[in-house]
């Protein structure tokens, strides 16, 4: 899984 | 960004606007749980701390500012301006029974043991149960105003749409966040019986009246 460090969701 | 997340965010925005309209037009907060609104303000505060440190997009920043501003304005209306109409006798859910366990879980289960990450995890877990005081209040009062039902439907739909957004992102972007998905599933499940009542009753012009 690629845990997106940059939180781009609200 | 994808269509599911966009509609989800719009549904979330709509829910908050419906609530503000209901309060402003009826000049009353009857039937609304102040406890849930406190939890939502806490969710936005702990989740959007990166508002000033990381810029994602104009849209992202504007929505975060609106959500935080609207949630505190809602608290102001509930506990100051329209305080006289706040039904504290029916808004009795002990939110410390939610905040404390969620806080503990955020420390134990997270992606990274760092302050911002733990606060983000706390806000994700808290949001999944933040509606409980409101649903508890509706079950105690035995009914909900139609506009409150629309508020709850929009609010519940937003996270259900986010589940579709995560499925989309998993297949097309290889993105997956187990914590957000599990909490989102729990959150959406909590609305299921309300969704059933809303679709079978409210959409047929009846009011929601739970067996008290």
UniProtKB/TrEMBL annotation, chain B:
Keyword Transmembrane helix annotated: yes
Keywords tagged on the record: Endoplasmic reticulum, ER-Golgi transport, Membrane, Protein transport, Receptor, Transmembrane, Transmembrane helix, Transport
Gene Ontology cellular-component annotations: endoplasmic reticulum membrane
UniProt topology in membrane: Multi-pass membrane protein
Subcellular location: Endoplasmic reticulum membrane
GO molecular function, one term: ER retention sequence binding
Statement: the UniProt record of this protein carries the keyword NADP: no
Single biological process term from Gene Ontology: vesicle-mediated transport
Residues passing through the membrane, by range: 65-82, 94-113, 119-138, 174-199
Family note: Belongs to the ERD2 family.
Full protein name: ER lumen protein-retaining receptor
Organism for this UniProt entry: Crassostrea virginica (Eastern oyster)
GN (gene name): LOC111118667
